[in-house]
Amino acid sequence: MSIPSVPLLINGEFVQSKTTEWRDVVNPATQEVIARVPMATQEELDAAVAAAKEAFKTWRYTPIGTRARIFLKLQQLIRENIKEVAAILTREQGKTLPDAEGDVFRGLEVVEHAANIGTLQMGEFANNVAGGVDTYTILQPLGVCAGITPFNFPAMIPLWMFPMAIATGNTFVLKPSEQDPMSTIRLCELALEAGIPAGVLNVVHGGVDVVNGICDHKDIKAISFVGSTGVGTHVYNRASLAGKRVQCMMGAKNHAIVLPDCNKEQTLNALAGASFGAAGQRCMALPVVILVGEARNWVDEIAERAKGLKVGNGATPGVDVGPLVNKNARARVDNLIASGVEQGATLVLDGRNPQLEGAEANGNFVGPTLFKDVTVDMDIYKQEIFGPVMCVMGAETLEEAIQIINDNPNGNGTALFTQSGAAAHKFQEEIDVGQVGINVPIPVPVPLFSFTGSRASKLGDLGPYGKQVITFYTQTKTITKRWFDEANAGGVHTTISLK
């Protein structure tokens, strides 16, 4: 059976690349090669941007209602095809089918928000700010925008990007992860079916060369990025120097504080799900847990919940923890676990080399892994592991725990588990992290708000989706207007006053 090739999307057509460089798309649970993806040529990137630039000439003037109806149709199509998209996603990325459906659904919420673009893109008006003078603002699209998305959310993150950019009147060039591009392409097929015109949405695949090409291209006005800190910093610096707007959501080291007055059962279940779900491959995962006071005695009970999670192929019903995305990711996680042991942490539960049979025996599996006695100088604390590894620390007081978190350079997400309103208020006020959960382990906001990671987890002022991204994808133009008639024409004024 021949291996399918993942197409490019240029000017409304899915086309085969003319590149000589291809990479395999591999099922991480079985090592089966399921597709091959092209590393697009410079000419193909140029063609995608040119198509977007040409389409912008008319798309920018498309009525708001017309744009909104396209996204109403797209949300309907995604709902009708969510299980199909999730199955593709699981096969190429590895996460469990329920988690894959959640991946698609969280992106779908942004599509629904894009359908409300009429109220989101309204400007401001002030009547008679001076003698006969009115002032108002309009929000105009920028032009060609681009998105670079990661492997861990191949449905949600593209749907964070292109719907809001296109709904606000821009055109878009998307570069999905070359590791799992197939579910993204299926969503783009649905976008065209919903009525997005030729050239408004384009897709190119590739690695470093394509990323640099996007950063450098003179006709791309703004770039949205989600991925690692190293790549995000490179994209931000290179694209900013090229005069583009850039937003980069990057690495993290999220912490939870557990106070002994919390609802114990709910808290322990939440910790296990947030730490080990998606095999820990979330920028909003919960890899560090700080147990305060008497809660420091709960480590064994966390371990019991971790032991009860089933590891295996994400397509198998009942599996809780799927594989890591590739062999290199597995090797990196294994090495970090080994470093934790070498540097003095206590390995309570070792998830390396889980015993699986059949095709899964070759998969990139690491089971839930639990450390205690972790300190801030250890590599398992300092590095983003991006695997199913929980690092447990202890603290005497809430104040001590808050200080640990604030001393960490990252600021993506954090959580506090307590039944004390006073403790919750102190935490939300004093914690220096952009997204805060109170008894919520993964505090990713719904699209009515925006993703607000902070500090080393983010470069750029504005977050993806929500109200902030409307500002990111538009230029505010302020108009100050006065009409004269013969009776009030007035004389020459040499001052700046509007009187």
TrEMBL record:
Residues 14-479 form the Aldehyde dehydrogenase domain. SUPFAM superfamilies: ALDH-like (SSF53720). Its EC number is 1.2.1.27. It holds the Pfam family Aldedh. Keywords: NAD, Oxidoreductase. PANTHER family: MALONATE-SEMIALDEHYDE DEHYDROGENASE, METHYLMALONATE-SEMIALDEHYDE DEHYDROGENASE [ACYLATING], MITOCHONDRIAL. Belongs to the aldehyde dehydrogenase family. NCBIfam families: MMSDH. This is methylmalonate-semialdehyde dehydrogenase (CoA acylating).
